[in-house]
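Lab meeting, item 3. Inverse folding demo.
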């Protein structure tokens, strides 16, 4: 193989593996710069207003927004300068049917969590009662504030894992490899969460990565996996009162109170249902449902932006009828 071909593909673009490496480097650089700026701003704020303290929702929201901004920023830079693609190729613009994708995804996310809870309850592992806290304002406040945080958190993770990394490998016709290379790290970062369930935490989170990647591949848009992702977490913590990947403080006053009766291999124990067999079964069923569903589909433009390499302009053969297939110019 010629040395040039190690770096440049037949479309005249940097090969997908190198593009992925550039994205990771760009993401870390942008993450460092934004994080440094936020820390300086926070230090200045506490100096001039020492009595002011940020609440949990604000702190966690800022953290998620940093990840989101870094992911989208690095993704856009790579899409634009490495592949000649516009912002809309990232799948987070108001394309035709975007709200339908978000709505259907949200419905599937809630229904999937309800299925997992039903499986665990039917097997005698969980019991639910209505919250003793008042609907207004405690439960209502939890539903609204946690919902906002879950949307931002899910969007940050989708932009990082189902954003440019999966998209660029999909354009290189390496979607299966892309699913693997994004799902395994997605599972690995959750191993730092509290109350990790040995074996099931990694397995189920990796399956969740596949589940969300399939949701992306069905629409080639981030709106659908965003809906699935945030709604699952919201239903898990705010509706059913279960830990969200081992974390309980996000939803202090859920609509339902859950009692875990075990065994832990079924219910996930202190980690929550994501650490048990009920979740494994649900994720397999929901993934197959999404893959076969006719409720959503990719628009022609999104499919064109994500299904093939975008040839470099200099490599195009000019025909008798002037035309371009560089989607960045469309």
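The presenter then showed the designed sequence:
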């Amino acid at each position: 193989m010629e040395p040039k071909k190690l770096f440049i593909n037949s479309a005249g673009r940097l090969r997908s593996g190198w593009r992925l490496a550039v994205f990771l480097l760009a993401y870390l650089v942008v993450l460092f710069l934004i994080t440094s700026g936020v820390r300086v701003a926070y230090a200045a704020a506490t100096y001039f207003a020492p009595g002011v303290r940020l609440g949990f929702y604000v702190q966690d929201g800022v953290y998620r927004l940093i990840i989101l901004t870094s992911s989208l920023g690095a993704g856009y830079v790579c899409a634009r300068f490495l592949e000649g693609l516009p912002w809309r190729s990232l799948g987070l613009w108001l394309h035709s049917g975007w709200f339908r994708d978000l709505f259907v995804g949200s419905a599937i996310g809630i229904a999937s969590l309800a299925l997992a809870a039903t499986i665990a309850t039917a097997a005698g592992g969980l019991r639910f009662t209505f919250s003793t806290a008042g609907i207004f304002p405690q439960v209502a406040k939890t539903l609204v504030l946690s919902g906002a945080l879950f949307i931002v958190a899910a969007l940050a993770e989708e932009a990082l894992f189902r954003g440019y990394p999966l998209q660029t490998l999909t354009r290189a016709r390496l979607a299966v490899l892309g699913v693997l290379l994004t799902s395994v790290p997605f599972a690995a970062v959750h191993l730092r969460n509290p109350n990790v369930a040995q074996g099931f935490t990694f397995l189920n989170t990796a399956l969740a990565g596949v589940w969300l990647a399939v949701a992306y591949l069905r629409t080639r848009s981030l709106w659908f996996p965003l809906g699935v992702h945030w709604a699952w977490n919201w239903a898990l913590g705010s509706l059913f009162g279960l830990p969200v990947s081992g974390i309980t403080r996000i939803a202090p006053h859920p609509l339902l109170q859950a009692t875990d009766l075990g065994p832990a291999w079924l219910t996930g124990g202190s980690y929550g249902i994501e650490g048990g067999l009920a979740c494994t079964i649900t994720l397999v069923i929901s993934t197959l449902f999404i893959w076969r569903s006719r409720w959503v589909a990719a628009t022609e433009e999104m499919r064109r932006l994500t299904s093939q390499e975008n040839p470099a302009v200099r490599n195009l053969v000019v025909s008798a009828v002037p035309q371009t297939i560089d989607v960045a110019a469309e």
